[in-house]
Amino acid sequence: MARATRYPELTVSGSYLQMGEQIGEALREQIRGFDAIALDRVRKITDVSRERALEVARHCIDEVSHYAPHLLEELTGMANASGVDIERLMLLQIRNQLQPDRADANGGCTSFALAESAGGSIVGQNWDNDPALDPFSVVLTRRPQDAPAFLSITQAGLIAYLGVNDAGIGVCSNSLPAPARLHGVPYYFTVRALFETRSLDAAVEAIRRANRAIPANLILATPEGPADLEITIEDIHVLRDSNAGPGVVTHTNHCVHPDLAPINEDFPELIQSGPRKCRIDALLAATPRPIQRATLEGILRDHEDHPHSICRHANDHPDTGFWTSVWSLLIDAGERRLYLSRGNPCQQPYEAYTLN
Q: What is the DSSP string of 98-156?
């Protein structure tokens, strides 16, 4: 049987509690399925008990109650309708906090943002992670009453993930191995706060005010142009260009900003981050402007150094060899549109999803 090429789609609207209830009802089976396997999948790369994980989840509920109480309302609605209690839903949000010496549970990805594409501002990436998460992945549109609407590719039960809002801010993400801590505002809530903004400055401030638990990299298409945010638990460093040329930012899974580069000496390189960064820079630098979307899709299919390539395939690495490019994503921020391949882009076509 041929594999499906499109993800399930859902649109919700109303108050935060109402949106959570709509998600919990419509995606009940996906949320329960994700809940059933989430901790066991984390245990493939770190050793943590369920009791310890739920203790961290309870601390994080308190953190979010100060940072974004309205989002706890949404999570409460999700819990009520899905039958998965709020502590276990919070556990889905904190999986990448449960290994503070590694901070790589969010995957190892190759991403870029550029202003000089044929369609305007574009941000894209391959999301290299656990393919077991595919059955719980959905394309979800949220239309809150008092914040920008946004369209995202996410796992059912998460408060936010990658996508674009109606202000034209597109968001992709990379793990950033750097110091972390167990307790703090979970990463996904800071991404959601970013979707509630309408400018680069506001996006940075929304993340800065969080008592963050883990580092992360967010790469953006914004009304002010492409930008990359290297986010540690202490600070945020904004990058606006790269070796790929002016108006282009790229990122893999190590610190790039000169102030943060010394951190790389203390953390092992995550899935060949350096070679992938050099490769994406070289491919984009050699591509004439304006860059067509089909050309960007081809870059995300690149197999140099296969299977440790930009288009990543299973390999013999003892910890992360099961990771593959679970999806490939291009976000046309001007058109408020996602182009997604459900699986490795060398094997699956890109499908379009639009924030109407």
A: S-TTT--TT---EEEEEEEETTEEEEEEEEEE-GGGGGGEEEEEEEESSS--EEEEEET
The angle at the Cα of 127, spanning 16 to 356, to the nearest 5 degrees, equals 45
- Measured distance CA(326)–CA(94) in Å, rounded: 20
> Which part of the chain is CATH 3.60.60.10?
110-354
Partner residues linked to 343 by β-bridges: none
Arithmetic mean of pLDDT, 245-264: 93
Q: What is the pLDDT of residues 311-328, one digit of tens each?
A: 999 999 887 888 999 999
Residue 318 one-letter amino acid:
P
pLDDT in tens, 35-56: 999 888 777 767 788 888 889 9
Separation between Cα atoms, residue 47 and residue 43, nearest integer Å: 5
Of the candidates 334, 267, 279, the one whose C-alpha atom is nearest the C-alpha of residue 306 is 279
Distance of CA 327 to the CA centre of its chain: 11
**pLDDT tens sequence across 101-139:** 544 445 679 999 998 665 568 999 999 999 999 999 999
DSSP 265-283: GGSPPSSSHHHHHHHHHHH
Tell me how far apart the alpha carbons of residues 339 and 238 are, in angstroms, rounded to a whole number.
26
H, E, C per residue of 49-107: CHHHHHHHHHHHHHHHHHHCHHHHHHHHHHHHHHCCCHHHHHHHHCHHHCCCCCCCCCC
Q: What is the 3-state secondary structure (H, E, C) of 152-167?
A: EEEECCCCCCEEEECC
What is the largest distance, in Å, between two alpha-carbon atoms of the chain? 54
Phi and psi of 158, rounded to 5°?
-80, 150
Q: In sequence order, which residues have a C-beta less than 8 Å from that of residue 62 and are 6 or more positions away?
A: none
CATH topology (fold) of 110-354? Penicillin V Acylase; Chain A (3.60.60)
Angstrom CA distances, 296 to 58, 123, 288, stand at 42, 10, 12
The Cα 188–Cα 64 span in angstroms is: 11
Q: Tokens in use for 18?
A: 């109402």
